[in-house]
Every structure is written in structure tokens, then in C-alpha cells.
UniProtKB/TrEMBL annotation:
<feature type="transmembrane region" description="Helical">
    <location>
        <begin position="6"/>
        <end position="25"/>
    </location>
</feature>
<dbReference type="GO" id="GO:0005886">
    <property type="term" value="C:plasma membrane"/>
</dbReference>
<feature type="transmembrane region" description="Helical">
    <location>
        <begin position="113"/>
        <end position="135"/>
    </location>
</feature>
<feature type="transmembrane region" description="Helical">
    <location>
        <begin position="71"/>
        <end position="92"/>
    </location>
</feature>
<feature type="transmembrane region" description="Helical">
    <location>
        <begin position="273"/>
        <end position="291"/>
    </location>
</feature>
<protein>
    <submittedName>
        <fullName>Inner membrane protein YbhQ</fullName>
    </submittedName>
</protein>
<dbReference type="Pfam" id="PF03706">
    <property type="entry name" value="LPG_synthase_TM"/>
</dbReference>
<feature type="transmembrane region" description="Helical">
    <location>
        <begin position="147"/>
        <end position="169"/>
    </location>
</feature>
<dbReference type="InterPro" id="IPR022791">
    <property type="entry name" value="L-PG_synthase/AglD"/>
</dbReference>
<feature type="transmembrane region" description="Helical">
    <location>
        <begin position="32"/>
        <end position="51"/>
    </location>
</feature>
<keyword id="KW-0472">Membrane</keyword>
<keyword id="KW-1003">Cell membrane</keyword>
<keyword id="KW-1133">Transmembrane helix</keyword>
<keyword id="KW-0812">Transmembrane</keyword>
């Protein structure tokens, strides 16, 4: 059934692609100024640096005793592969391999993944909620919802994000077991650090695309990008291939033209997905080789323990 689903997705993407104005997209891509591409790359670099910060915060929460440089490198490689290749390979498989080869138990690696998810999506709720509440651009007809509905939804999301922070500050029960895995609610200080990392990460991702598509209103672009992230989770296509394009062509194609929007999205994929993927795979290979060399020499690649979280 999974194979049939992906075949159907590919067929749909091909059918949609055949209807797009590729010559106009090629011309618009060729006209993109180098300064815009470099600005987009800088914004994406900030985003991935914050992803590495997620990993450092998660390691502190879980109590993983590894050098900070190794933890940050694992976080970067994991997110670079996660965004392009999918969560099972990037978020889970790659992390577990790199951590277990350094003496960190698989259970601790899974807890790291869970905490990273919490960091990422708690910030998502706050950014999307605030963006919908403060949105001044009229929603495109393709969305089939008005501004009042979006503002109500935004308010709900902000309340949920605030509720998470409140629970971190006030909840009496702070630990649960989910399918044998211990889940612990962080402190309010840690939750605020999660927001301080994830909110600018989502904004930096949107800023990268906006540098390539400056004619778009930033609030509409931000909401569209955040919306496509959730749709990509539902459809489960690696890198949201086709999902981001469909969302943005529906939201902005009519006003800005298919060619410029598609060209900007293609450049964004190169800057925000493919470039980091190449660097992430290289980082993974280097980290894996370092662990193999340490194992071959009889030295541990890292501490053979998980210390108690501070």
C-alpha cells in the first residue's frame, strides 16, 4: 500500500508539473540576483545553526555527556537529512547510529528526538499563531477562509503555546511513561529556551525564501510556508516535494505569476534543502568514520554513559 501511495504521488506531481510554465520559471531563475541567493543562504545557515542549538539543548535535558561540538554536528547532520530524506532516516536512524557508536544508549537517542520535536513544534505553534493574529494581507481566494477565521485559529495556537509554557512552570506531575519510554516535562526556563531557538528558526526559514521572492508579503509567505509544513507531514513526502510548490502557487501564483514563484521555490530548494543535505551527508560520513576509527583503536568515540540531566 505504501508503494502504491508513492506511485500515485509521483504520478500526481508529474501531471501537475506538465501544466506549469517552465520556460517562464527558467527565465525568472536566470534573472535572480546573486545577492538574493547569498542572502537566502545566510538565512538558511542561521536556521541550521539554530537546529544545532536544538540538539545542544536536548542533550542537556536528556543528560548526554558528549563534547558540544560533536552534539552540534550530529544535530546539523540529522536536520539536514531529516528535511530532505524524511524523519525515519534523518531524525531517528542517523541520530541513533551516531549516538550509539559513541556509547550513548538508544533510549537516550530516542528521548533526544522527542525533545527536539517538542522544541520545534512548540515554536511552530507560537510563530503560526502570532502570524495569523497579526496578518494584514488579505487571504488568497484559494484558501477559502476569511481573516476572522484565521485570527481565531491564531489565537487558539498562541493559547496552546502559552499553555505548554504554563504546564512547564506549574504542572505537578512532570514525568510519564509512553510505550516504555520515560517522558519528562522540562522546566519553564528550558521551555523558554526552546522558544528562543525554534521561533527564530522558523522565521529564518521564511526569511530565506522571502529573500528569493521579495515581491511577496512576508506575512502571507510565512503562513504559507508554515501551512505547507503541516501538509507535508500529513502527505509524508520527503522534503515536502510538490507540497510546498502547490501551496505557494495557489497562494501567490495568481498575483505574482507562476514563473517567478516557481523559480524562487526551485532556488529555495537548492539553498535550504540540497546544499545543507550535501553538507549534512558529508558531516555524517566524517562523524561515522571518527567513531569507526575510535572503535578500531579500542578507544571509545565518546563517554560511555548518560549523566543525570541538570
Amino acid at each position: 500500500m505504501v508503494a502504491v501511495f508513492y506511485v500515485a504521488v509521483v504520478a500526481m506531481l508529474v501531471a501537475i508539473g506538465c501544466e506549469l510554465d517552465w520556460p517562464a520559471a527558467a527565465a525568472a531563475l536566470d534573472a535572480l540576483p546573486l545577492r538574493a541567493v547569498l542572502t537566502a543562504a545566510a538565512c538558511s545557515a542561521v536556521c541550521y545553526a539554530l537546529y544545532a542549538g536544538y540538539e545542544l539543548l536536548a542533550a542537556r535535558q536528556v543528560g548526554v555527556a558528549l563534547p558540544r561540538g560533536q552534539v552540534a554536528a550530529i544535530g546539523f547532520a540529522s536536520y539536514a537529512c531529516n528535511l530532505s530524506l524524511g524523519a525515519m532516516l534523518g531524525a531517528l536512524g542517523l541520530r541513533l547510529r551516531l549516538y550509539t557508536s559513541r556509547g550513548i544508549p538508544a533510549g537516550a537517542g530516542v528521548r533526544l528526538v522527542a525533545f527536539n520535536l517538542l522544541t520545534n513544534w512548540s515554536g511552530y505553534l507560537l510563530v503560526l499563531g502570532a502570524a495569523l493574529l497579526l496578518m494584514r494581507t488579505e487571504p488568497p481566494p484559494a484558501w477559502r477562509v476569511g481573516a476572522p477565521v484565521l485570527q481565531v485559529l491564531g489565537g487558539v495556537l498562541v493559547v496552546l503555546a502559552a499553555g505548554y509554557a504554563y504546564a512547564c512552570a506549574r504542572a505537578r506531575r512532570r514525568r510519564w511513561r509512553l510505550r516504555g519510554l520515560a517522558v519528562e516535562l522540562p522546566t519553564l526556563r528550558t521551555a523558554l529556551r526552546q522558544f528562543a531557538l525554534s521561533v527564530p528558526a522558523w522565521l529564518a526559514s521564511a526569511a530565506s525564501l522571502h529573500a528569493l521572492l521579495p515581491a511577496a508579503d512576508f506575512d502571507l509567505l510565512l503562513v504559507s510556508l508554515l501551512g505547507s509544513a503541516v501538509i507535508g507531514l500529513v502527505v509524508r513526502v520527503p522534503a515536502g516535494l510538490g507540497v510546498i510548490e502547490a501551496v505557494f502557487l495557489g497562494a501567490l501564483g495568481g498575483a505574482l505569476g507562476e514563473g517567478p514563484v516557481l523559480a524562487s521555490l526551485l532556488a529555495y530548494r537548492c539553498v535550504h534543502y540540497l546544499g545543507p543535505l550535501v553538507l549534512g551527508l558529508l558531516t555524517f560520513v566524517l562523524l561515522d568514520l571518527a567513531a569507526r576509527r575510535a572503535a578500531g583503536s579500542g578507544r571509545p568515540a565518546g563517554p560511555m554513559r548518560v549523566r543525570k540531566a541538570a
